[in-house]
Amino acid sequence: VRLVCVTLLVVGFAWASAAWGASAVEELTKRLPDDVIAFAGISGGDALKGDFEKTALGRIWNDQGVRTFYQSIKKELVAKAAEESGDPNVSEEVDLVLDYIRLALSRPIVVGVAQTPVEDGPPIAGFAILDAGGRKAEFTAVLNKLEAMVGREGIVDKEIGSLKVRALAEDSGFPLYWGWTGDCFVVAVNDAKGAAVKYLSQPRATVSAALGKVPGSGDACVVAADVQRVRELVGSIIRQESGDKDANTFAAALKKLGCAEVKTFCARAGFAGPDVVVQAFVEMPTPPGGVFAMCKPIDPAWFSAVDTRAITASAANWNLAGLYDTILDTVKSAIPDEVEDIEEGIKDLESELKMKIRDDLLASLAGPMVSYSLPAGAIVEAPMGGVVVAAKLKDAAGFEKSVTAIGEFIAQQSEGVLQISEQKQDDGSTLHIWTIAPVAIMGIRPTWSIASDHVVIGSSMELCDLGVKQLVSKGADGKSLLDAEGYKKVAAGLPQNIHNLSYVDSAVQFTQIMMQAQQVWPMATMLAMQQNIKLPAMLPSLTHIIKDLGPSVDYCYVAPDGLRSLYRGPGIEVSLAAVAGGALGAGVAMPALARAREQARTVASMSNLKQLGLAVIMYADDHDGK
Asked: Model confidence over 44-83: pLDDT tens digits?
């Protein structure tokens, strides 16, 4: 949810042209149809441009260096696409599509699904409602172009409720229509009864009840779902399609997982000064059951086991043995015919491992766990930085025996790739070092040790040793993350009954990421050059923005009415995940597209040869085999 929200924030508000401060999505939800199952909406860039530009994300997007960098890459990729396709109009087409996206995301829009009676097919209708405001003429011009692409013969006029709309001449069983009521535009599918237009001209007096359960910060993005209705609808469809047995199995599985009593879900994202704020709520009885019950309250004091130089830190308290039981019970209820095979498979695996997964390994963990990452260059002993995990143990001897058995099994199966060694420390503790040569070259040698009824795992031997010392007696200076100014800032006012807690020093993290990106960028430019794509020689400098970044905090807690969570921070880490995902997708897609083009040419040639061959055979049949 956070990834989707922040991505929409960046895309939707980066090109906006004016600013007001109202929650436009709240107003638009007054026009939602009855029996809404789920919806998502944005207030639009026109409404929130001013607030967005105050955030770190807005400052980065509007930075001249970033804009130049973006335009340079876009120009090269568009030119490559034009060359590959042989279409000289690719640049204009790309700009046109981007203009359409910017226009659509500039205004308040809600997209969702609602339950509706139908004679045949799924009993749900999809809809989108947009408030064009003073930009109706721009939207109308775009709509006319799209209709022209379909062709006048493919579009008919019809009435849906009291609204005159346009519709596709052939609906293929799923009627699609669109039309205007004042400044509101609606498009709906599988809505023959006109549920989506009911409140367009006369909106309700109140906003969606789901939004009243979660505080908002401008409502840059909203996601809400009636989970109970979704559950009932899916169950009824399963009952119709597969019978009572499968429907009962579905219901039993949800009950085991603790999802049977979840009522609603809502998340609202917005801006507060330089920060992005995302608040979410899962309505359910408390205390929760199923998998939700396996997550126990945490004590923020556990961060005393975290090095004060950490850039990220998380604390959780999972009953892993109970979680294992819950999931296994759910699987058994969902596929009872395969229970015997599953249990036999687990027994075979445990026989090879020479330990019990549930009783020896998972049950030996007490639950409380903290993890943190250290930056490169901050620690002499581990110049490349790394990760440390510390978990409390209920049975230290049982855990040590289990992990040792797992290591021996993996080493045996790896045929020498994994080497396991031990090193005794002066304090009497033992470091168990797992070495895999290709990974060790990068400074990663997973190491674990038992200390003070805890297991400490480090991405290197040095970090494991530092983690043990931090756990036992804090750092060399007697301090921990609890003493860091950034943490003290975000920890002020934390609620009671927290079930997980994460902290990020956004400025240091972003600096580290930019340094690593600068190191690999030359290689990326060389690889791109091999594809005749000229990338900018350097990444944009963002030091003037990084220095102003504050820390971020993310936590979940149990309230009397359900589970609530809050994220507050620059939004950098979530945005970087979106950018990294897009870059990875582009990297995978480029060679795949090249192969696809070759395959397409081959298929086209084979088709042509087949048609030629058929024509010759038909001719011969008509001319005595000649």
From this structure: 888 888 888 999 889 998 999 999 999 999 888 888 888 8
